[in-house]
Amino acid sequence: MAAPYEYEEGGYPQQTDAVGYDPNFVPDSVKSFVVHLYRHIREKNVYEIHQMYETSFQTLSERMFKETPWPSVDAVAPYVDNDHVFCLLYREMWFRHLYARLSPTLRQRIDSWDNYCSLFQVVLHGVVNMQLPNQWLWDMVDEFVYQFQAFCQYRAKMKSKTAEEIALLRQFDQAWNVYGVLNFLQALVEKSTIIQILEREKEGLEEFTATDGYDYSGGSNVLKVLGYFSMIGLLRVHCLLGDYHTGLKCLRPIDITQQGVYTSVIGSHITTIYHYGFANLMLRRYVEAIHEFNKILLYIYKTKQYHQKSPQYEQILKKNEQMYALLAIALSLCPQVKLVEETVNSQLREKYGEKMARMLRYDEEASALYDELFSYACPKFITPSAPSFEEPLVNYNQDAYRLQLKMFLYEVKQQQLLAGVRTYLKVYSTISLGKLANYMDLDEPNLRAVLMTYKHKTHAVYSDGKIISNADVDFYIDEDMVRVVESKSAKKYGDYFLRQIVKLEGIMTDIDRIKLE
């Protein structure tokens, strides 16, 4: 088995008690930031809010708070009229900065949970009359799920816990409880009526996607867009728990074959397709996984240069590499290269061409490669249950990952046993059962069982109940003859010619730059 991955909980090891840090000191630049941000939120100036959230906050963090937290909410509250909702939003950003730059204490993890509870309670049961950028609303849901995942991993490492930490875990046993997390996400989906809004949009009775979720009639977009992104959050949580059917069911109201609000934020777009593709991979829906990975990888290839200055850029590159690894797995189990664009296929061969060739051998080395790629590219699975404090304390943070890896490798092993069937089906258009049984060193009853297993393993049941084949080679048995049906796709010449035209234009531009004497 490959070396189990380590869970990343924070980018830096520094603690919040950094030398010289005074939580009550508010620099002038921070005063100006919170005053202007508060004013823009009250005025519903989404453009300015977005600029301050995406640019100013990141710039100040890099320049002034690289190794310390931002000033405390109590210190900045007087500059924003002690506005309760703004203070909740500020604390949400405060904790997000803490998780990204430092290593939060258990007390801070619990406080962050309390802040999310208060913030979501206001959104669900209060009157929220503001418009926030989709990027910020996505980051709220994304960070909420991330902090839940990080807390589960932190709690599962029991051996290193102090007596004080164990006492806190006992006292606050409802903090980051899996039912609480799922209930908040589900409540946001239901209270926002986003599923009904998307249904009415299909009938032309509502505009949501066309306006990117913003309300141009003076209302608020917060509840609706949080509800929308919560469906993606539910998919992610269920993938972390290993419940792929339920995760895909939660995402069903969003048509991922079309552009939508989820594509308006690059992080949301990538997270959606990564978890959607992974869930389909684990459910043996290889064609669907390949199709979606191909689309998103092509999109990232064409657009990643526009996100180089974005704080999400490193995460975009990481997910890009992980999805190439998942695509390599999917194509090794279901060799349908025709579904992949030539640009993506070229990148894939460059990264994993040699490994994919070895993965097709179906031996111990191939299993080790499947193990390696899965361990690198899979989500950071969690065990959501609290530890037993009465028994000897043990670490169980790797248990969920090991279980999912074991299930995946078991599936791979079953696929390996069927490798011989596909090899012969690729060679023959018709072959008698007796001849095939002789080639495979089996008797006819066992061969029929193997062929039935091949049929089962190359077909998957989709969410709508349809049974779809993943096989590039299919067959049917006519009396004692196996008749092969090989799918043939039309060759795509357009993509090739477009790439050559772009290359030619580049060469012509280079020639024009050359100054002849």
UniProtKB/TrEMBL annotation:
GO cellular component annotations of the record: eukaryotic 43S preinitiation complex; eukaryotic 48S preinitiation complex; eukaryotic translation initiation factor 3 complex
- Biological process, per Gene Ontology: formation of cytoplasmic translation initiation complex
Q: What highest taxon heads this organism's lineage?
A: Eukaryota
Kindly report the protein's main subcellular placement as a broad class: cytoplasm
Locations listed in the record: Cytoplasm
Output one GO MF annotation.
translation initiation factor activity
* Assigned keywords, A-Z: Cytoplasm, Initiation factor, Protein biosynthesis
Its job:
Component of the eukaryotic translation initiation factor 3 (eIF-3) complex, which is involved in protein synthesis of a specialized repertoire of mRNAs and, together with other initiation factors, stimulates binding of mRNA and methionyl-tRNAi to the 40S ribosome. The eIF-3 complex specifically targets and initiates translation of a subset of mRNAs involved in cell proliferation.
Q: What's this protein's family per the entry?
A: Belongs to the eIF-3 subunit L family.
Protein name, please? Eukaryotic translation initiation factor 3 subunit L
